Amino acid sequence: MSKELRDGALEYHRLPKPGKFSIEPTKPLANQRDLALAYSPGVAYACEAIVEDPLNASLYTTRGNMVAVVTNGTAVLGLGAIGPLAAKPVMEGKAVLFKKFAGIDAVDIEIDERDPDKLVEIIASLEPSFGAINLEDIKAPECFEIEERLKDRMKIPVFHDDQHGTAIVVSAAMLNALRVVGKPLDQVKLVASGAGAAALACLDLLVELGLPRANITVTDIVGVVWKGRNEQMDPRKETYAVETDARTLAEVISGADIFLGLSAPRVLTAEMVKTMAPQPIIMALANPTPEILPDEARRVRPDAIIATGRSDFPNQVNNVLCFPFVFRGALDVGATTINIEMKKAAAQAIADLAMAEPSSEVAQAYGGQELRFGPDYLIPKPFDPRLVVEVSSAVARAAMESGVATRPIEDFDAYRQVLSSYFFRSGLVMRTVFERAKAQPKRVVYADGEDERVLRAAQIVVDEGFAQPILIGRRAVVQRRIERLGLRLKLDKDIELCDPEDDPRYNTYWSEYHRLMCRRGVTPESARTVVRTRATVIGALMVHIGEADALICGPVSRFVKNLRHLKEIFGVRRGVSEPCAMQALILPTKTIFVADTQVEHKRSPEQIAEMTIMCAEEVRRFGITPKIALLSSSSYGTGETPSAQMMRDAFALVREQAPELEVEGEMQADAAISEEVRHRVFPGSLLQGSANLLITPDLDSGNIAFNLAKALTSGTSVGPVLIGLNHPAHILTPAVSVRGIVNLSALVVVDAIEKSRDTPWCPIPAEPA
Ligand SMILES: NC(=O)C1=CN([C@@H]2O[C@H](COP(=O)(O)OP(=O)(O)OC[C@H]3O[C@@H](n4cnc5c(N)ncnc54)[C@H](OP(=O)(O)O)[C@@H]3O)[C@@H](O)[C@H]2O)C=CC1
Ligand SMILES: CC(=O)C(=O)O
Ligand SMILES: [Mg+2]
């Protein structure tokens, strides 16, 4: 390993605080009452509820989402028996991965004990504290007995990750590697290096999946595991002992289709690789140094498919792809164990994901690497946000079907939404919107149909089935990009295309545009030019004419230009003097909406009141009750600036026009968020709790406040949501992500559904306003 990596890793572990995680309270502990609830005397009620029914522990404590990562430090990575203290960085790392990838709270427990009997006693005694136990880096053969005895004794899942996590990921990668080389699992010859925890569990699962036991030869530190051998044997190894005169890896590797290394650094040589069968599969998985480095193997066998356990080579076969998600699924259904059905379901889900087209989030995280199923992309990358959804739900379902789930999931669609929120925090907030959109899909035209993000979003929209996309773009370019991105979209089947260079509807579009704009200085000639060159205009005309129900434009062209076209072609809703843009910031504990972030830099009190009422209506679409604060530098009359007066006037107008709204103003932003601060300055406030819709006095303050909060909190943003036009449309900003486009697509479909019901929209004016 390079010095640079060593220095970087040590600094990462040391700064800014030693170690990799800390524990944060999830409840307020700010005053005497909180103390009385959290601790004595209030806590006693939670204790009594658990005495009454032990299942209440998952209601009143962290137990249901808490996993112990337990080791005794006897087989730490490939570093060997380095002891429990030195194992702590690895275990802290596993704990952090549980949290990051699957939202599971995990703590590392390093136990200074090698005696299996004592270890079993210690670990079994942890049952009251945890919802599941992840055994880690405990050496073979003791690990087998330890796990079996704990599984018998404990009523929560006990899972030795080095065995089963590795087996699941190896099986997924193996199934896909065999798919690439076109060899059936029941006809390949496999040689394993290593007969420890990981290797034997992998072999067990591969046998379960159809690899004949007779096709397997195992080697370890002594050499071939043969029938009759006495040296360093144990009952588990014995099950793979074969009748043979061969005694070394070099002898048995000849003609093998697969090398599975879960042993030690550099045990496989280039000479040995040369003798393998055509298109050999080499899984050199010892960590951190594999049995052979990929370059060395590739040099002698360019036809090989190669995987390692490391993130710095293609095909990282590592149990990180599995353990967070298997535990997530098991905890969510209250599984009493993790059985073979759950393991097989996890392996299949991982294998299937690599076959699906790559996600843009992964492409982004991996710096634009080519991520299409093939020899260098056999399994998904650890940062693939689909893993938590697909693997956890497959495991949960398998637990239910195999009868080990104590809390079966009733609504799998809802569960998948919750799972996606572990990665995309917009998931939960957007759930109501997606459900409504799916119930009544609409035709959405995308003006920038050649943009890669739009194409990826269109694929998701088609897969999720909440809209029928229409793309504006040149046919050859769109087709080429679909292929390059590995998408499955079929032009003219999944999606309609409008090619601005060659569309028979061109004459209809420019004539209509001219009709709308002829009294605004637009000549037939310039109408032709605008329609030929501005995709947003074509998209807007399609909606206006009724060929589409809603429009998404951007991210390529500028927001203000797009908005101008939309106002010209659509007009604004009756009673609206100016549209506005609202953005949502989704934080771990709450969602806030801010307006106006994009549209009009100066509004009158009447327009602020109008915007407030429109935005409140929009917030309800997310299933959230608006709690509105009209922001200012002044709180309840403390300032005399014109903008403070304007917000006071706007507040009075909103109270008059929409008395049902929970609204207050004018106030500073901290008073809006904190009830405590607000009550200090104005105890009689009409607003309860924290405001979630923040109306700012002008565009600059709205935009600055939103972006500052976003940058400081790293919250997820949804929007800008364009409100007030006479037809459903949103304008994408240049920084939008694929997920952002998908979110806005769902929102625009919901707009279109409401418009089709004629609530609260009004008809298209004959001439634009
Ligand atoms: N990529 C991944 O996701 C994972 C990788 N691993 C890696 O796999 C390796 C084994 O881990 P694990 O099974 O937990 O450990 P174990 O200690 O349980 O097993 C190690 C095995 O390797 C054998 N071995 C050790 N040295 C050699 C050698 N020089 N030549 C041949 N065989 C040897 C041992 O032989 P003997 O039985 O004779 O002692 C034993 O069978 C480690 O490098 C670990 O990092 C493990 C889990 C997951
Ligand atoms: C990845 C892992 O668990 C190991 O190498 O031990
Ligand atoms: Mg391990």
Structural class, by secondary structure, is: alpha/beta
Small-molecule components bound: NADPH dihydro-nicotinamide-adenine-dinucleotide phosphate, pyruvic acid, magnesium ion
Q: Would you tell me which CATH topology of the largest domain applies?
A: Rossmann fold
The end-to-end distance, rounded to whole angstroms, is 68 Å
Mean pLDDT: 91
Number of strand elements: 20
> How would a textbook summarize the main sheet?
6 strands, mixed
* Rounded radius of gyration (Å): 30 Å
Protein name: Malic enzyme
InterPro entries: Aminoacid_DH-like_N_sf, Malate_Decarboxylase, Malic_N_dom, Malic_N_dom_sf, Malic_NAD-bd, Malic_NAD-bd_bact_type, ME_PTA, NAD(P)-bd_dom_sf
Keywords: Metal-binding, Multifunctional enzyme, NADP, Oxidoreductase
Family: In the C-terminal section; belongs to the phosphate acetyltransferase and butyryltransferase family. In the N-terminal section; belongs to the malic enzymes family.
